[in-house]
Amino acid sequence: MGSYPRASGARPRADLTGESPLFVDIGGALGLDSARLLDKHPDLPPGAGLVVQDLPEVTTKHGAKEQLDPFITRMAHDFFAPQPLGGARACFVHAVPHDWPDDERVRIFESMRGPMTRGYSRLLIYKIVLPARSEENWGRLLGRSGLRVVGISRHPRAVESVIEAELS
């Protein structure tokens, strides 16, 4: 995920007590992005709530459990199903939506709203975003899902961007 600036705007401090997840990596496969987050922030307290979700066959894949830091929880979850977690600070999706038709992506993003709390939670989508037209397309797509784009952060040396959205 690298270092990307985040969208402006004051938000409440993150809950690091473990009462609600800090970071839910939806469709996160073997948890590489969550591991990178933990590498960048090794001072996160145990139980801060880093969760990697993916299909049961991915979460039980040989070696999947052993490859994760013990601070990261693996959870079987189909992103079309209602989200079982609530109050997450950040719901993150890396490459999941790129190969789905718009109607299916709307369903996926609607299910991701479940763990979000208005004024606190953000959906972070790590994706290639081309200027202007692509930004408009993302705004419409997320709008259909009950979300709104807060900002799109670009790293000067990367082709990917982070789309930051919140409940509309």
Automatic annotation (TrEMBL):
GO terms for molecular function: O-methyltransferase activity. Residues 22-136 form the O-methyltransferase C-terminal domain. The keyword Methyltransferase applies. The keyword Hydrolase does not apply. One of its GO terms (biological process) is methylation. Pfam families: Methyltransf_2. InterPro entries: COMT-like, COMT_C, SAM-dependent_MTases_sf. It comes from the Eukaryota. Keywords: Methyltransferase, S-adenosyl-L-methionine, Transferase. This is O-methyltransferase C-terminal domain-containing protein. The lineage of its organism: Eukaryota, Fungi, Dikarya, Ascomycota, Pezizomycotina.
